[in-house]
């Protein structure tokens, strides 16, 4: 019987990201997936700035082609791919679809899931992760001390038992782990089944020069959605749940293209358009992450895979702190406390936005929309791992409004110095960091063995974006940023015994 500190079940986008993030925090683990490689039909294509920030922290952002700054994802209504645009879809009515480039050191990335997964797989292995592919979980039990997994090697049918301290279930929307635990889900539920055909037509890519990437096709008797993976591959999604033979598929592609271009059918797909959020993200030693925890349709915000990648970014440092004996096991409760409300917020925002509102059932009550910057960079984390994020605060707001509010992502500012290319975010990502313009706080950080950065020396803020305004901290005060870049706590005063005790308690997750 093997024993591992962490077992990750599922090696798609979220499982592989979990593996990479755990290695980033030096946590030994095993990842299993029943498949050896990526699915032939990629799903995700749009990755957000936040996802890229996490990959940047792990040193792999430059392996992933990022969008040009200012590039916009645009969806238009057309008769066929090359015809005139009838109208353009607003993602958030009244807001430009691009996000403010000043808010992140990264732009988003447009890369097909089956091109990103091999990059993540290679990076995780390079960082020392152990991946067992072609290995299926067949049973999982747990008691107070451990989780016990039974797995089957699909090549030779050999069964193996693996003990783990903790398990991360990244086994997708139909998660057998979640079902086995009997964890219910809430939300709009199943809305419809979507069928698609993936085809290769490099000649169609010239249309992308016009600036739109997603096309709602409408002709008499024919409605479909056409989008690109940006590498000569296109996917056509049908408006009905009817199985088509090859001849029908070819005719539909031809109709959508509206031009006689050579193309080759690669494969077909069948998807569920649904909204379901698990009631519990943790049961005992098992955590749900990614689609296992929240099933959300792809929308402008890329709330699907991106939400899952953010889940495991939140979880990885907590597991590292508990396994390393630096924090009390109670820290792990904050995963559900912080991530479940964010999953629910994203569910509500998805079905309140125009691209999905018409699919929501009549019982769904739309909520006021948060803007793009608030949803991407300004979601609030409320738990015992944060001090000062009271119930009166909104679930999200733009970084400018938050100004370093505990519970939100620490703001990005480029350093005003010779290096010039360093972001505040580059200070975070591994351990707690104390940031202050006052020497007394730096001394306290050193006494507590916390990384302490002296504003003006360790990091120079530009005149137009001073520390005090960006992080909302006075000259006498300090801010404490968690290893995941979320502000944990801040003070406006010089350090005293109470402040020291608060920091100690936060870091050790005690009280
Ligand atoms: C058409 C489409 C387009 C999309 N576009 C976007 C987008 O642009 N941006 C975005 O953010 N999201 C998008 N999504 C959503 C995104 O694809 C999913 O959120 C994402 O793939 C979920 O990743 P996951 O790792 O949680 O689960 P999955 O990708 O479902 O992976 C689960 C993994 O678990 C493995 N597994 C399952 N059971 C077992 C077992 N018993 N033993 C071992 N292994 C097991 C499977 O083999 C699989 O590899 C899109 C979805 C669709 C359908």
UniProtKB/TrEMBL annotation:
Keywords from the UniProt entry: FAD, Flavoprotein, Monooxygenase, Oxidoreductase
Gene3D superfamilies in the cross-refs: 3.40.30.120, D-Amino Acid Oxidase, subunit A, domain 2, FAD/NAD(P)-binding domain
GO MF annotations in UniProt: FAD binding; oxidoreductase activity, acting on paired donors, with incorporation or reduction of molecular oxygen, NAD(P)H as one donor, and incorporation of one atom of oxygen
Domain FAD-binding, residue spans: 4-345
Keyword Chaperone in record: no
A matching Pfam family: Rng_hyd_C
Cofactor: FAD
Protein name: 2,4-dichlorophenol 6-monooxygenase
Organism this protein belongs to: Pararhizobium mangrovi
């Amino acid at each position: 019987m093997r024993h591992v500190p962490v077992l990750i079940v599922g090696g798609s986008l979220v499982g592989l990201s979990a593996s990479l993030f755990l290695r980033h925090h030096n946590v030994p683990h095993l990842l299993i997936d029943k498949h050896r490689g990526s699915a032939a039909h990629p799903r995700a294509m749009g990755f957000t700035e936040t996802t890229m920030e996490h990959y940047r922290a792990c040193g792999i952002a430059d392996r992933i082609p990022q969008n040009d700054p200012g590039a916009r994802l645009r969806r238009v209504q057309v008769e066929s791919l090359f015809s005139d645009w009838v109208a353009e879809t607003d993602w958030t009515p009244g807001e430009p679809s691009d996000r403010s480039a000043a808010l992140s050191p990264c732009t988003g990335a447009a890369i097909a899931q089956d091109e990103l997964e091999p990059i993540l797989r290679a990076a995780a292995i390079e960082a020392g992760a152990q991946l067992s592919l072609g290995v299926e979980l067949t049973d999982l039990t747990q008691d107070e001390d451990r989780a016990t997994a039974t797995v089957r090697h699909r090549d030779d049918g050999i069964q193996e038992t693996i003990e783990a301290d903790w398990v991360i279930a990244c086994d997708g929307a139909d998660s057998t782990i979640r079902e086995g635990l009997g964890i219910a889900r809430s939300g709009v539920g199943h809305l419809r089944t979507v069928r698609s055909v993936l085809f290769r037509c490099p000649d169609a890519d010239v249309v992308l020069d016009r600036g739109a990437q997603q096309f709602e096709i409408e002709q008499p008797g024919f409605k479909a959605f056409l989008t690109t993976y940006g590498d000569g591959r296109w996917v056509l999604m049908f408006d009905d749940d009817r199985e088509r033979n090859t001849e029908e598929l070819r005719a539909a592609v031809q109709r959508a293209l509206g031009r006689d271009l050579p193309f080759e059918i690669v494969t077909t797909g069948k998807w569920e358009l649904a909204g379901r959020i698990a009631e519990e993200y943790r049961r005992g030693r098992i955590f749900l992450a990614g689609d296992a925890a929240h099933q959300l349709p792809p929308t402008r915000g890329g709330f699907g895979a991106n939400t899952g990648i953010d889940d495991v970014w939140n979880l990885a440092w907590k597991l590292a702190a508990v396994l390393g004996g630096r924090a009390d096991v109670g820290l792990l409760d904050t995963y559900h406390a912080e991530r479940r409300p964010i999953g629910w917020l994203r569910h509500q925002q998805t079905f309140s936005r125009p691209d999905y509102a018409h699919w929501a059932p009549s019982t769904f009550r739309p909520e006021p929309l948060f803007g793009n910057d608030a949803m991407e960079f300004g979601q609030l984390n409320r738990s015992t791992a944060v001090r000062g994020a009271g119930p009166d605060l909104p679930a999200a707001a733009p970084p400018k409004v938050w100004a370093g509010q505990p519970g939100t992502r620490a703001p990005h500012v480029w350093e005003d110095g010779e290096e010039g290319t360093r972001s505040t975010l580059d200070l975070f990502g591994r351990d707690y960091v104390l940031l202050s313009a006052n020497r007394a706080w730096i001394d306290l950080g050193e006494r507590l063995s916390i990384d302490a950065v002296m504003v003006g020396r360790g990091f120079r803020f530009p005149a137009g974006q001073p520390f005090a305004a960006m992080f909302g901290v006075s000259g006498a005060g300090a801010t404490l940023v968690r290893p995941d870049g979320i502000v944990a706590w801040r003070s406006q005063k010089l350090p005293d015994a109470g402040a020291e005790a608060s920091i100690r308690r936060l870091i050790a997750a005690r009280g």
